[in-house]
Design a protein that fits this description.
alpha/beta, 10 helices, 26% strand, elongated, 318 residues
Amino acid sequence: MEIYTDLKDIKAPFPHAHVTIGNFDGVHLGHKVLFDTVVERARVHKGTSVAVTFSPHPLKVLSPNGIRLISTTNQKIELIEKSGIDVLVIIPFSREVAAVTAMDFLDHVLIDTIGMQYLVVGYDYALGKGRQGNITFLKEQGEKKGFPVQVVEAQYVGGEIVSSSKIRELVAAGRMRDVHKLLGRFYQIRGLVQPGHQRGRKLGFPTANLCISEEDLCPKTGVYVTQVLYGGKQYGGISNIGYNPTFGQNKLIAETHIFHFNADIYGRPLKINLLRHLRAEIAFDGPDSLIRQISKDIAVAHKVLAKAREKKLIAHHS
C-alpha cells in the first residue's frame, strides 16, 4: 500500500481511482465493508483503490475535548493496509482544511489531485465546511461530473448498529465481547513498557506496565483477561487498568502479568488485546489478600483463554 501524508506528493492522478473517504476511527466492520467494496470495484475495472482520511481526527481539532479515539493513526494504517487498499491518502487536518467548502474539496482534492472516477461512502458521510457535502450533494455532483456514487448502508450486528461512537461507549463500559463483535477483532492498547515499582515481582506476579493517556479512549478500570503480542508471539495474561488503589497510586496504568513469560522488555513495544473485563479495581487490606485474588483471576483467565482458542479467536500457541 502506498501512503501519502501530503497532497503535494501526489504528482499525478491515480489511474481509474475508486475512492472511499472517512475518518475510519477504529476501522470497524462497517468501514471494512467500504474498503471491500472499493477494492472489489477497482479490481473489476482494473483501477486503483484509494482510501482518503484525516490526521488528526477532525473533532480533535474542532472540539479537542469532545472525542477519544478508538485507534491511533498507526493502528489505522495497519488495519487499512490489511484490507487490500492500494493507496492511502492521509490529509493533515487543520482549521484551514475545515474551512474548505465541499465543492472545492471535491473538485481540487478528490477529482483534480486524486483522479476520482468512482466514490464509495457510508450512509451518513458528509464532507466540507459545515458538512455541506452530504449524500444528496455528492450524488448530484456525481451525475454532473461523471463519477458514480455508491452509498453503503448502515451495518448491524445482533441488532446493534456498527459505529465508532457505539464502540467508544462499549469500550468505556468494559463490554469487550460486544466491542469484539462490532470491531471484528479485539480492542487493543499499545505502548512502550515503562519501569514500575517492582511490586508485582515482589508478590510473585511480575508485570509489564504501560502508561495510558486519559486523553485517549480508556477502557473501564479493572482487571481484564488479555492476549499479549510481543516479538511476533502471542501470550495469555491478565491486566489491571487503573490507579492501583491498594498502593495509593493516582496515575492511570495498565499493569499486565504475562503468562509463561520471563524477559526484560523495558522500553520495548507491547500490544495488549482486551478479551474480557473480569472485575472492578478493589483496594485490598494487604498483600496476602491481593495475592489470593490475583491467583483466582489467573485461574479464570486461563479458562477464558482456553474458550477463545476453541472458538479460534486466538491462536493455540498463545
